[in-house]
Amino acid sequence: MHNRPATRTLITHILEQDRLKIVPFIALGVMLSVSSILGYKYVLPDTADRENLAQTIMANPAFNVIFGQAHDLTTIDGFNAWRTLALGSMFTALMAIFLVIRNTRGAEETGQAELIAALPIARTARLKAALISAVIASLAVGVIVFTISVLVGGDVHATALISAGYATSGIMFAGIAALAAQTASLTPTATTLSLTLLGGAYALRGYADGSADHTWLIWVTPLGWIQETQPAHLNRVWPLGLCLLLAAATYATALLIERRRDYAGAALTQRPGPEHAHNSQYLPVFLTRLNAPTFLGWTISLALLGYLFGNIGITIGETLSKNPTMARVIASGAVTENELTAAFISMILSMLGMLAGLAGISVLTRLYREETSHRLENVLSGAVTRTRYLAYTVLIALTSSALAILAAGGVIAFVSRGGQADVSSSDVIAQTAASIPAIWVLVALGILGVTAHSNAHWLGWLGVVVAFSVTMFGPMFQAPQWVMNISPFEHVPLMAAPSPDYTPLIGLGIVGVVLIAVSFIRFSHRDLA
């Protein structure tokens, strides 16, 4: 057996096949870093503005939860490290997860792996090739981000550590994805398991950064190790060694399982469906079972995030009242601690609402996979019509996103009630319900993407990225109101206000209905992939 040449051939094939899926993540990492460096120079040209921004951000636990602890926001590289390290590491980890699972469990599911396994190569060659490809792709992210960032003005040492954090995160979570691929028998289950672990690591890191009493938890999560390199501050390299040790352990364990397990075997197998089903119940039950793992993963993750943010929201009103600058960023016009707390919870629910939107968009991504793998064509060749199939899929997507945000809001309400927060649990529930129309607009955009054309399935994800960017960075950089209005969450009223205006919610509902109607018309007339 010529294992090394075979592995090299597989690596070349994977990188060539997935290059168009890797490039967007490289571009995203570059845009994060470059926009931070150039934006900081032009938006905050003098010292007074920089110190004001530093005061605002360092006093706001919400920013710490999302981006990590800010150590030095009066320099370009300190701002770049704070704004990009946590997000860039997470995006690189996503790239590695998708790449590994697609070329391991995904290849087994489609039958491609069986053709490769019939050749005279080692049992572990496919997994080795997928892991090495993920390492190469992660290093490519780091090298390209470093090169371009330095060219636009980033410090060499700080930028090198930030880029190394990106690459190390991808290398580390490639191993976690490899273990998930050995554990789960289906690609969606393996992906959901990996993303749940990534989301849990990110949430735990966020809780440690946002809570002054539990900073030690930063050492429990792998993403916290990357954060503790503290580029442009302490510039520590050794925490990355912990990440590489974890990567080595997961790689070795996954390869050991790969040697011993049966082809297409897994610890978590799919249960067989009922032997007989009534025709009227077949389709909804089938689609519900198909999307249940994804829905449960998102709901549990959002409930966990709701618990973390709920604990922060208990005392946030007092913190905001002591920092007028930061209060203006989060809640213009709010004066009392109750109003400031309500505004903070509204902002947090907007962030969680975007994740809930992704829960619905993930259901639609399944529709895209079913179409491109030609399984949808088999289903529609029977008595099931396109309209009926799409109607049930849309219903599940909308329901999943609504239930996910309600789970998060319910946990926040429960925590705030137990902790005697400055806002009532009924106001939290009302604010959660008010965010659902904005979430459904994002889901409707995803519906339009997958129904307009099989190559436009990314439209919903793009909508979430734009909404997040506008909501998070618009107030910080004093964006004009027309830019802020791009995000649907900008139109969600503050339900704790004496007389909230419900008119924008009606407008969001109309936008969502129009997008879904256009989607049905388009899907019923176009050819399948």
Low-pLDDT stretches: none
Q: In total, how many domains does the architecture comprise?
A: 2
In round numbers, the mean pLDDT is: 84
Give the oligomeric state of the chains in this entry, treating copies of one chain as homo and distinct chains as hetero.
single chain
Number of helices: 23
Structural class: mainly alpha
- The gross shape turns out to be globular
Description:
- This protein is mainly α.
- It has 2 domains: 1-262, no CATH class; 280-529.
- The chain is 75% helix and 0% strand.
- The chain contains 23 helices and no strands.
- It has helices at residues 3-17, 19-43, 47-58, 61-67, 76-102, 105-110, 112-117, 125-151, 156-183, 187-210, 222-227, 238-260, 279-313, 316-321, 324-330, 337-372, 375-380, 386-418, 425-434, 436-452, 459-473, 481-484, 503-525.
- It is globular, with a radius of gyration of 23 Å.
- The two termini are 39 Å apart.
- 49% of the residues are buried.
Give the gist of this structure.
With 529 residues, the protein is mainly α. It is built from 23 helices and no strands.
SSE blueprint:
Blueprint (H helix, E strand, L loop, with lengths): L2 H15 L1 H25 L3 H12 L2 H7 L8 H27 L2 H6 L1 H6 L7 H27 L4 H28 L3 H24 L11 H6 L10 H23 L18 H35 L2 H6 L2 H7 L6 H36 L2 H6 L5 H33 L6 H10 L1 H17 L6 H15 L7 H4 L18 H23 L4
Helix pairs in contact: 1-8, 2-5, 2-8, 3-15, 4-10, 5-8, 5-9, 5-10, 8-9, 9-10, 9-12, 10-13, 13-16, 13-18, 16-18, 16-19, 16-20, 16-21, 18-19, 18-20, 20-21, 20-23
